[in-house]
């Protein structure tokens, strides 16, 4: 079995500042949400052994707020910045860990969450996949190269407002 934790970055700051979307940081609410999501992961004993993350400032800040072990194999990938679902799945197929955390952006991350599952969570925010949305899904596979659409079972889903 392989486990995927699929997370959209926390709430970003739209008040100006950086000249590029890639460099946009989290706002104060986003930083609090990232910390809450880290507590939620710890409370469910969900610690990844590999992290695949977009290179954007807001995904990096989200990861920092989770307060995970710095020893986790982490790859910052420009290809995950605003990636469509098919590119996210392609990246996942190259993973090596048993439990992989991916942090990215909508619409791709939400479309990926929907497309990999056999049954969707009944959470009213799942289809919107708002900032900080986090899905934990299990694949009945032994190698990530076998990950595919409609092959995962949802174990948990949360959004920061639930925490």
From TrEMBL:
Signal sequence range: none
Pfam families from the UniProt entry: His_Phos_1
Lineage per the UniProt record: Bacteria, Pseudomonadati, Pseudomonadota, Alphaproteobacteria, Rhodobacterales
Organism of derivation: Sulfitobacter pacificus
Entry protein name: Phosphoglycerate mutase
InterPro entries from the UniProt entry: His_Pase_superF_clade-1, His_PPase_superfam
Domain of life of the source: Bacteria
């Amino acid at each position: 079995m392989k486990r995927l934790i699929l997370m959209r970055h926390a709430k970003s700051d739209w008040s100006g500042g950086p000249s590029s979307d890639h460099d946009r940081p989290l706002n104060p609410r986003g930083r609090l949400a990232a910390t809450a999501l880290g507590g939620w992961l710890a409370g469910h004993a969900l610690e990844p052994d590999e992290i695949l993350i977009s290179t954007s400032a807001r995904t990096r800040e989200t990861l920092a707020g989770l307060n995970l072990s710095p020893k986790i194999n982490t790859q910052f990938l420009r290809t995950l910045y605003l990636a469509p679902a098919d590119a996210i799945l392609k990246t996942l197929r190259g993973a090596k860990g048993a439990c992989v955390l991916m942090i990215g952006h909508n619409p791709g991350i939400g479309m990926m969450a929907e497309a990999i599952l056999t049954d969707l969570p009944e959470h009213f925010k799942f289809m919107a996949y708002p900032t900080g949305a986090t899905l934990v899904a299990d694949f009945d596979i032994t190698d990530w190269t076998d990950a595919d659409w409609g092959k995962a079972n949802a174990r948990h889903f949360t959004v920061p407002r639930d925490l």
